[in-house]
Amino acid sequence: MENQRFSRDIEKSARELLSSRKERSNFWRYANVLGVGGWVFVIPVVGGAYLGRYLDKKMHGEGISWTITLIMIGIAVGIYNVWYLFVRKHQ
């Protein structure tokens, strides 16, 4: 009787431990996905903004035509990066 109770307690503890590990790993996995997804989107946008600003200062002195153009290209590249990383790569 005592051995059965001990076995049930151990089994219950093991199930709770596995359950908590799964919950924790899901959190970190989603945090990782959001972090990586953010970086692969933001870097092309910010890079386009800096490059566009540099080109505007070199060519026009004032104006934002290159800045806006390269930000839009950066957004397109960022969207493609996220799509490739999370959708295309996992098919």
The N- and C-terminal alpha carbons lie at a distance of: 52 Å
Portion in beta strands: under 5%
Structural domain count: 1
Q: Which quaternary structure do these chains form?
A: single chain
Average residue-wise pLDDT: 84
**Which bin fits the share of residues in helices?**
over 70%
Total count of helical runs of at least 4 residues = 2
Q: Total number of β-strand segments? A: 0
H and E string:
HH
Major sheet attributes: none
User: What overall form do the CA principal axes indicate?
Assistant: rod-shaped
Rg value = 25 Å
Which spans have pLDDT < 50 for at least 5 consecutive residues?
A: none
Structural class of the helices, strands and pairings? Answer: mainly alpha
Description of the structure:
The structure is a single chain. The protein contains 2 helices and no strands. It is an all-alpha fold.
Descriptive keywords:
91 residues; mainly alpha; 2 helices; rod-shaped
